[in-house]
Structure of 5-oxoprolinase subunit PxpB:
Amino acid sequence: MTDYPISIRPFGGHAVLVEWPNIVDEAILEDIIQFKSCLKQRFLDPREWEMVPAYNSLTLIHNKNIIEYRPIKAKLKTWYGKREVAKLANRYLWKLPVCYDLDFAIDLEEVAEKLGTSIEKIIELHCSHVYTVYGIGFLPGFMYLGGLPKALEVHRRAEPRLKVVKGAVGLAGKQTGIYPQESPGGWNIIGNCSIPIFDANRDEPCLVNVGDKIQFYSISRAEYDLYKIEGEVGIYQFDKIKLDA
């Protein structure tokens, strides 16, 4: 197990932020997830603490009390040094359908022109890679997916839209992701996923966790319409594969 130089700082009265080196690295993400699991199992009561991992940080939030920063900082440093390999929650590879029809993929032609390639090649590349969920935020259920092939890297839009529709699949820099609800946004939209990854009415609103994997596959407009109906009535069967621990 690699020890990383972590830093700890207050993040408001009820939270502290633990930070790892500021690089996108799956080994760092794995260490963050391991430390989170270790804290939950050995040191911090999960009924009192919320723990939010993302990219190179772990935010610890106490649900009730103001945190005494110096004591918790000292404890976290000690706990990190004494951490052991923890039993992790199950992680999955989720295979998600995307319709790249130009009615949905409103930036696809422009992206193809910017990247000097064809629409077909963009779809092929987008579907051929497996992405890692590095963070969930911005909107409830918005997954920041790393592992985008370099050939698909494109800058955010110069002018963000005031309205991006629910399910829109976008590209921005080295990332791809799905808008779980209608919102403003500046990512380049290349398709739409009609199944609900986030639903506030479910016992577990967000099905996917940080550390899970995502792979997209292309569907027709007719399949999109069918899956949308199945998702709305709650009978869509998610395609997921349990990953080895």
